[in-house]
Amino acid sequence: MKLTKWYLAAFLLAAVWTFSLSSCDDDDNTPDYNLTFKVKPLVNGQPFQLGVDYTSPESQRFMYEKFLFYLSKVKLIADDGAEQPVADVMWYNLGNPETVKLKVPEGQYNNLQFSLGLDSLMNSSDPTDYEEGHPLSYSQNNYWTWASKYIFAKLEGRCDNNLSGTGYTGAFSYHLGLDTLYREKSVPRNVTITNNTVTNVELVVNVDLIFDGIDIVEDNFTHSTSDFALAEQIMNNFVAATQ
After folding, report:
1. For 133-145, what is each residue's pLDDT tens digit?
2. What is the biggest distance separating any 2 CA atoms in the chain, rounded to whole angstroms?
3. pTM score of the predicted model
4. Rounded CA gap, 90 and 109, in Å?
5. Who contacts 112 (Cβ-Cβ below 8 Å, separation ≥6)?
6. pLDDT tens string 38-94
7. Bridge-partner residues for 47, per DSSP?
8. Half-sphere exposure of 229 (CA within 13 A, CB side)
9. Where are the extended beta strands (E) located within 57-123?
10. Rounded to 5 degrees, what angle do the CA atoms 183, 187, 190 make?
11. What is the DSSP letter of 142?
């Protein structure tokens, strides 16, 4: 009888221990976020990559070697107009898209609001005020000391008029900046956030449309103050291509 009681007690103890371990495992596997956000670059509906040949809307061959830009003031807008911040500022590399993970209040959101570039307050900030690695620090190598302003976007690569060629005869370099090129946009997103489900939100950039109406072989250079009209056209195309 005593032996039976001992076995029963041991069995119950083992069961409790197993349940505790299972509960801990469940807790460890539960993410501490309920929202992910990332930019999804596409070319003709297919994933974009650096170093790959593409054809522009003007039937010119091109390849990106660098595509970086400031994405700032990203927010979800609720039905009642309340704003939920997603990201304050990011120096975003389309060659290696970053995913933001965060916890936001449960609710229904119907718009995604964002900015390309930096508002005048951020654009006038001092990069030495930020730690290395911060999007606005000197370590990002995207600050114009001569203008005391940031570069909003860097688009660099190779280009050619020969669609059947294998090499490139030209190159393009577009550095967009200055307060006048800052852009804000809002796009519809019907998103329901709950605490027990991770919701994924994406912002699509149709990279091929950025060169719409632009002869990248002839008009292949602007650092904004040089040929501002070209810089403005590229930024406007960039905004239209981001949805």
Report:
1. 999 999 999 999 9
2. 96
3. 0.87
4. 22
5. 74, 75, 76, 77, 186, 187, 188, 189, 191, 201, 203
6. 999 999 999 999 999 999 999 999 999 999 999 999 999 998 999 999 999 999 999
7. 42
8. 3
9. 61-78, 83-93, 99-102, 107-116
10. 155
11. -
